[in-house]
Design a protein that fits this description.
Layout lengths: L4 H9 L22 E7 L5 E6 L5 E5 L5 E5 L8 E6 L8 E4 L2 E5 L4 E4 L13 E4 L15 E2 L5 E5 L14 E5 L7 E5 L7 E4 L4 E6 L11 E7 L4 E2 L5 E2 L3 E2 L17 E5 L3 E6 L13 E5 L12 E5 L11 E4 L3 E2 L2 E2 L3 E6 L5 E5 L4 E7 L4
Parallel strand pairs: 13-17
Antiparallel strand pairs: 1-29, 2-3, 3-4, 4-5, 6-7, 7-8, 8-9, 10-11, 11-12, 12-13, 14-15, 15-16, 16-20, 18-19, 21-22, 22-23, 23-24, 25-26, 27-28, 28-29
């Protein structure tokens, strides 16, 4: 598909993050804290984006430009890693969510499902449309991260179809529904583009990333880490950004005080995407219960930002602290060879990281772990 107007503009101006051809990941350039190690699981996962784990340990991976959905076996140590392409030809199938043996996959206009998928990796079933009629306008942010919540409902974002525009409550929101697509409910509004959300263990509180608007400069507005306390909250888009900056075009219509402010500012243009809470015990105690976030990296900042995985610690009052870098080295100055897109902690305490630029999945481990 042709580039969006913003992408076309960034290409014309030479400001885009490098879109280098797929090449071998530069493992020698990756940096992790003392005691940690990072290894390559596979570099045969073109455009790897969101990840989900099946009941038997299969790792499912969506993509964006590739239009494919992948399944990786052997990741849990049961043998050599094998990569299957279990669906292809979809329209930006970024999101994958495993539920009761079935794999749900996002498309720009609907959600499809591959039934009993772990029984059919060699001959995957044809995707069935289970959710249709999702709002769609040709523009930005139509790809979707999806996940099932603790309530067994499927959560689906409806991104803003633009950099900045006022489209009411049809877009820039998060909805939920029953697994068969019925009983759709609005969850939250004023969300420009969330490509990652998760629920905090012990509280079932929903946390999500939101990418700030472009074309306001290098340093504003910040990407956000947001917390949903009450269904129906609005987080400001398109009127207010990062909780305290009125939009130049729409800010006069509503004050920032009318909206829920971010729980944490993550930095301008870092493109915070997938996030998960670390529930394992293999990492040092300082990381237990932390929120791990993949920062995909900026495309229109004069000095690149992001391109790393960060860890967010929570204080005694459950307030998130400023992020600390966990994995870096995906970019060297103004050149990037990799772009983290999602994180997925595993039962053994290690954590997977997807990279859509290198077409790879990595494993972050500590100590004697794999």
């Amino acid at each position: 598909m042709p580039p969006t107007p913003l992408r076309a503009a960034c290409i014309l101006l030479g400001l885009c993050a490098p879109a280098a051809a797929h090449a071998a990941p530069r493992m020698d350039l990756l940096r992790v804290p003392d005691g940690f190690s990072i290894t390559l699981v596979s570099d045969h996962v073109p455009n790897a984006r969101a990840m989900a784990r099946g009941a038997r340990g299969t790792i499912f991976v969506g993509s964006r430009a590739a239009g494919n959905v992948y399944a990786l076996t052997g990741v849990d140590g049961g043998g050599p890693v094998r990569v299957y392409t279990i669906a292809h030809g979809l329209d930006m199938p970024v999101g994958v969510a495993y539920h009761d043996g079935d794999l749900y996959v996002s498309d720009t206009k609907h959600i499809v499902v591959l039934r009993a998928i772990e029984d059919h990796l060699d001959a995957p079933p044809r995707p069935q449309v289970v959710v249709d009629g999702l709002p769609y306008r040709d523009g930005d942010h139509s790809w979707k991260f999806i996940a099932f919540g603790p309530d067994n409902r499927l959560y689906v974002p409806i991104g803003a179809p633009c950099n900045i525009c006022d489209v009411g409550h049809d877009y820039a929101r998060l909805i939920s529904m029953a697994p068969d697509g019925t009983d759709r409910r609005d969850v939250a509004y004023g969300i420009r583009n969330t490509v990652g959300f998760t629920w905090q263990p012990g509280t079932d509180t929903l946390w999500f990333t939101d990418n700030g608007r472009d074309m306001m400069g290098d340093d504003v507005p910040s990407d956000e880490l947001d917390r949903l306390d009450t269904p129906g909250q609005s987080f400001g888009y398109p009127y207010c950004h990062q909780g305290n900056i009125p939009d130049p075009q729409f800010g006069s219509q509503h004050a920032c005080s009318e909206f829920t402010p971010p729980a944490l500012l993550l930095g301008a243009h870092v493109a915070a995407l997938g996030l998960r809470f670390y529930e394992g015990s293999a990492f040092p105690a300082a990381y237990h219960g932390n929120l791990m976030i993949a920062e995909h990296g900026s495309w229109n900042r004069s000095q690149l930002s992001g391109y790393q995985v960060v860890s967010v610690h929570f204080g005694p009052d459950n307030t998130p602290r400023p992020p600390t870098v966990l994995v870096s080295g995906f970019r060297q100055g103004q050149s990037a060879w990799g772009r983290p897109a999602d994180v997925l902690p595993l039962p053994d305490g290690s954590m997977l990281i997807s990279d859509d630029l290198a077409g790879a999945v990595y494993r972050l481990s500590y100590g004697t772990g794999r």
